Amino acid sequence: MRTESGGPPHRAGEPVRAGVPEHGRIPRYYAVKTELLELIEELGEGTALPAERELAHRHGVSRVTLRQAVCELVLEGKLLRRQGSRTVVAPPKVLQPLALTSYTEGVREQGIEPGRTVITAETLRADPELAADLRIDTDTDAAVVHLERVLLADGERVGLESTYLPQHRFPRLLEEFAPDGSLYAHLREQRGVVFGEAEERIETVLATPREALLIGTNPSVPMILLHRLSWDSDGKPIERVRSLFRGDRFSFVTRLYR
């Protein structure tokens, strides 16, 4: 079925007019992209796409046009490029709740095994902004504990997390905490810390060359950046966290109340 303009039909739940411009002229690559989405549904997760030459012939377009359609689907997380130039149907995105839960808890609820690779575990001096967020007196004790860890989902690198905690509140954290484990579980079970509330800000960015290398992604892939500041039930700061997630592998969800 086609619209009067000759474009793909608009189905309930899709963006208005399924991306068709008001003038009705659809870029050829976008039409191919729509047709590839139907093929992706038929093939299923992990299945390789037919060869580029075959797909270009099947859709009656140049290989340049086909590559543009495939590239957008890769950026959107519908397709994955594998070693050896294979392009396969991507698995569903990891759905992470925007809630006062840890990465470990959110991922494990979906039947995915979380993991972390430790990049940095150190104590350093807080800059004025960080000291203010964590209510650290820079005249007496400006030290913070810094943990930088690559986030894993079923062994796949999906993000990079940098956490800062006031060292005066958690003086022996680096000696007592296994940094490849769940920090929230350690704080809750070993230190009796009760998270009371948090402020979270979300934006989209591109990874720096270092971040892309650590996460193992293409620097052109959009990333989701989360900034979180957490307090305990008494209103005392616990942590400031900067979490960077692959936009092609993660989606975030929350429930809103009036």
TrEMBL record:
Chain spans, region Disordered: 1-20
PROSITE patterns: HTH_GNTR
Keywords, sorted A to Z: DNA-binding, Transcription, Transcription regulation
Example of a GO biological process term: negative regulation of DNA-templated transcription
SUPFAM superfamilies reported in the protein's UniProt record: Chorismate lyase-like, Winged helix' DNA-binding domain
HTH gntR-type domain mapped to chain residues: 26-92
Protein name: GntR family transcriptional regulator
Species lineage: Bacteria, Bacillati, Actinomycetota, Actinomycetes, Actinopolysporales
